[in-house]
Each structure stands twice: as C-alpha cells, then as structure tokens.
Write a structure and sequence with these properties.
The chain is built from eight helices and two strands, in the order ααααααββαα. It is mainly alpha-helical and 147 residues long.
Length: 147
C-alpha cells in the first residue's frame, strides 16, 4: 500500500507544480487539469486488481488532507481563524482541479458555486475513484461459428 500511496502523492504534488506553471498560459491549466484527472483515473484503474480494502485504504490516506481541511472548513466555530485557513489549505490541496472549478458560474446563498464544490471535492473524488475502479471493460460480442 505504501507504494500506491506514494505514487498518488507523487502525481498529486507534481500536478501542483504543473498547474502553477501553466497558469501563465491561458487554457493550458485547464488542459493539464484534465490530463491530471485522466492520469489519476488510470492509477485508480490499476487499483482495481487489488483488494477493496487496499484500494479504499490507499484512497483515504491519499485524500486525508482534503477530508481534514473540508471538515475543518465546515466547523461552526473558527478558533483563531482556523476555518478560513482550512479553506485556503483545501483550495491549495485541490490545486490540480481548481482550473476546472473556475469554470463554474453561479452563486448560492452568497457563496460562489465552486466554494460548495470545493468543500465536496473529497466526496466527489471518492465517487470518481469508485467509478474508475468499478468500470467494467466492454467485452466483444460473442461470435458463433457457423459450419
């Protein structure tokens, strides 16, 4: 499990650097964000051959910072501004998908739509993980041999 988590962190951290550098070229950050999701989906697909516990354990360890920051952002109290710092760190943690979130328009209850999507990103990535792992390969149709 250590190597799986290490690979996911490696992909994630280098995606930060790529997205940061790509933000100087309009549109390139969006392309790299999509490439990041494709690479992560391929990595998730490789987890499909392992046990469910290993796959979900790796995912939870990989996304633990996102879960912690999202929960801290949702707390009703802000001890020394922890709530605001947690949301900043949440945005920092999900830097590889922030360019895609910037495409969301709209306001709900005074907050932009990407605010809510960013808070739900750990759960959205969990659904993305589940879909990527459980997506079945389409088998070719059976051909009958006729004499």
């Amino acid at each position: 499990m250590t190597m799986i988590v290490f690979r996911l962190y490696f992909i994630h951290i280098f995606a930060w650097l790529a997205i940061w550098l790509a933000m100087f070229r309009p549109g390139l950050d969006l392309i790299l964000s999509i490439i990041y999701l494709v690479i992560v989906a391929v990595e998730f697909r490789s987890l499909g051959r392992h046990s469910k516990g290993l796959g979900w354990g790796s995912f939870i360890i990989w996304q633990a910072p996102g879960f912690v920051f999202a929960l801290a952002s949702l707390t009703p109290w802000s001890w020394w501004g922890l709530k605001e710092y947690a949301f900043f760190l949440l945005e920092f943690w999900y830097t590889p998908v922030v360019p895609l979130l910037s495409l969301l328009n709209g306001v709900i209850a005074g907050y932009p739509l990407y605010y809510y999507v960013l808070l739900g990103m750990p759960l959205l990535l969990a659904v993305f993980f589940w879909v990527s792992v459980h997506k079945q390969k389409v088998s070719p149709p059976h051909q009958w041999n006729s004499p």
